[in-house]
Design goal:
Number of domains of chain A: 2
Oligomer: homodimer
Distance between the termini of chain A: 24 Å
Order of helices and strands of chain A: EEEHEEEEHEHEHEEEHEH
CATH class of the largest domain in chain A: Alpha Beta
Pfam families (chains A, B): Methyltrans_RNA (PF04452)
Strand content of chain A: 25-35%
Keywords (chains A, B): Cytoplasm, Methyltransferase, rRNA processing, S-adenosyl-L-methionine, Transferase
Number of strands of chain A: 13
Catalytic activity (chains A, B): uridine(1498) in 16S rRNA + S-adenosyl-L-methionine = N(3)-methyluridine(1498) in 16S rRNA + S-adenosyl-L-homocysteine + H(+)
Largest sheet of chain A: 7 strands, parallel
Radius of gyration of chain A: 20 Å
Number of helices of chain A: 6
Largest interface: A-B, 28 and 28 residues
Subcellular location (chains A, B): Cytoplasm
Enzyme class (chains A, B): transferase
Amino acid sequence: MNLILLSPDDIEHDHLARVRDPRRVTHLREVHRARVGDAMTLGVAGGGIGRGELLSLDADEARFAIDTLDQAPPPALPVHLVLALPRPRMLARTLEHVTALGVKQLTLLHTRRVEKSYWQSPELSPAKIQAHLTLGLEQARDTVLPDVTLARGFRPFVEDHLPELLAARRGLLAHPGMPISCPRGIDAPTLLLVGPEGGFIEWEVERLLAAGCEGIHLGPRILRVETAVTALLARLF
Amino acid sequence: MNLILLSPDDIEHDHLARVRDPRRVTHLREVHRARVGDAMTLGVAGGGIGRGELLSLDADEARFAIDTLDQAPPPALPVHLVLALPRPRMLARTLEHVTALGVKQLTLLHTRRVEKSYWQSPELSPAKIQAHLTLGLEQARDTVLPDVTLARGFRPFVEDHLPELLAARRGLLAHPGMPISCPRGIDAPTLLLVGPEGGFIEWEVERLLAAGCEGIHLGPRILRVETAVTALLARLF
């Protein structure tokens, strides 16, 4: 928690914030071992970042004097990430990684090799997803939550949504064995598609290439989804 | 487990391997749902990679007919990674990530902000470390275990080992606020130093820069160690 992310509810008035949820209060007490008078980095959900001073901290509440919140959050990555739905534990970690790295548009996609049971996981509830996104923001000192959409069918995604997404973005399909090595340091708006463990099936690859995506690879090593996504984002942007 | 990594003990003779440890046998049965006759990727620890056929699989043993094991494992990264010892759970995941990415030299370093208790963790036993490295190799279809050394003192590391390590390598110190953005696609032998959560302290940064390291950063976002290490390796190589 490198930033205390304030929701509008936490802000009492321009100069005072009260944090009352047990997770953050406990973190301030037990991990930060914060003390009255400490200066800390604060941010407003969807807004600016700045400093504040801890006025009080007890078991139920932390109060902050807000100094300024006028810095912009760090820039977003120019990417819409389309990720085959990972298994629940990996989803949780991947949501935190990609949020910390600056992804702001994320689509979780069903593909042939995604186990159908993953779509029933409690990790997909809006509250759980938001909790992981928030951890990613707090880590990276960001304030802007990513938009997460669920695409429960591959074919409807490709037919109804992909053309529009690709109209304004370069489409990159990350898949082992594709002809081009992942490009470095591109700055253009990008749609990045990453398959599940086991990969996209051949028919899916063909459909995505036919829709206008370029196939890219990360070399001969097969990486876990969470490692591959971080490596792709770090190399591309 | 994208590769069945055979130890010399597993190899009965040139054409027959027996895998008897419960972890791999269970994985073959329950995750791969392997069947007699399946062709699978095999590799010999420290050696070549090839194909084999599953001859039998029961609760205690899998037997493989070895076809060929004459392919080279994927190339290593030209990096010696020096990582401030992470907390035990993050260490476990980071060992897997960096092994999968192709790191072959790893030093775990004590720094001021590493909690001393981490050095007592059972995760640091040679058997535990090897288990995580093996998972990384199996993931990435590699056969060559990384060398892991423990450097329990910062000053002895800097005074006694760093000069020699830097004699043949470009030293890069990854630390927030350093002047140069992390370079992309370098091919030269590199020593990459990554600090703990909370970072190196200023005195440590000064010592590492004075020893000849260049300070690099990954931008304004503060990343978890495991995310930062993957991002650095993917961008550098």
